[in-house]
Design a protein that fits this description.
Number of strands: 25
Strand content: 35-45%
Helix content: 10-25%
Oligomer: single chain
Radius of gyration: 54 Å
Amino acid sequence: MYEEGNRKINFNWGSLAIKLGIIAVIVFIICLIITKVSNKDGSGKTLFAMGDTEYITNITSMKDAAFEYFTPSKLPENIGETQKLTLAQMINQKLLIDFTNDGETCDINNSYIQATKTADNNYALKVSLDCGEKSDFIVTTIEQSECVVNGNCNNNTTNNDVVIDDDEDEKPSNDNTNNGSSNNSNSSSSSSSSSSSSSSSGSSSGSTTTTVKTTVKITINCSSMCCNVDCTPDEPDTPDEPDKPDEPDKPDEPDNPTEEKTKYYKFVKWSEWSEGKSYAEGAENKQYSKTTYNYCKSTTKKYYSTSYTSYLNGPSTYSYELQLLDIDPNEVEEGSIGIVNSSISYFSSGLTDYEKYIELKKSGGIYATGNNDSANVSVGSASNFRNTSLKSSNFDFDVSGIYLKSGIYRTKVTISYYNINGVSPQYSSKLGRNVYFVPIKFDVSYVNSDDCIRDTAENASKYPNYGMSDKKTEYYWMHRTPEYKWSTQTELEGYEYTGIWEYR
């Protein structure tokens, strides 16, 4: 106000006192926060920061990697359950690279990140870094917001608290309200402290404010000096100190998973191994190979055969085919039939072999290919047959292997006769000349397929005098199924501990 050319100044002492009081409160709060964060223990080391920016950088890197790793699918499902990842595993999974602290390698096995489910959609995250003499940890929370759980996402605002565990709560200011024209003097004095909010809110013309905040929970380990609400360090009396602003309510701490809960251990008992593959939940399947053989008992038959020669032109050689009519190829194990070479011989000197031939001939067990009535010569009695037959000094012979032709097993007999010394001839009226019989005998061995048992090589002693053939290797599945049981006991008879536990 100007009067008659003179300027009159009005000075408001009340407003000045209010401003000075506000400034004093702000300075006091800043000093208190610096004291809390930089509080030193008896060793003169800063409690949390410890003057070591490298250590803080490393543990912060682990915390950031933990938030990236613990996606909803990797968080524990039940309250009290914990998922843990060591620093070694983090490095192996390329979540971060190996680092050192003060030139010394940190313990990658004792350093870890750990998420514990404390409530529905709420998890406690612990980050621990052990670097020899320097070892500390931080604790923060992982919260699944309603946006994540139910899909009720609002892209404009996200409200999270910033909490420091020394029980001093700080919340970033989000108050962009203008106090009006009546408080213009106060508005001008606080404009510097609220500039960040003003720049984001813009003018009052209707622009929308978008605030993004991060939830960080830091645990400061205190030693010789107090830093909790229960223990407040002495402060010098300050006369006429302005009242402190009201502190906001302290947020709830995460539930301690061991408080008022019982620890349960998971045990398993497996069934006996059974054949086949199982698709039951938790079933264990294994594939095995099994090699077996056919153990077959051999059958041996003795055959007697004869041909004749007239010895008209002296020594000579001839062959004939002998059919084994009493062996059914359908009953013989494939590849098992053959002549026993050691059994090939001349008839014995007695009448037995000659009688056996006559019996076999009558039963139709053998037949000489090409034989017919006009060429058939009867041997007569066993005695006559022996007297008119060549002996081992008169001829030699050979019997070839068994072969199958037209559904009949056959063999080829080759005779080489030298003389007829000491042998009486038999006159054949059909041929009109004397003949001399040439008898031989041999054994045929084969396996009847009905007499075979399939078993492993380890059981060969069970089958004496059996032939082992037809090797087969088969692959098959075996399975067993688990039976789970939870117990508060650390041991359970008949069960083995799975290494899994939880609080209930």
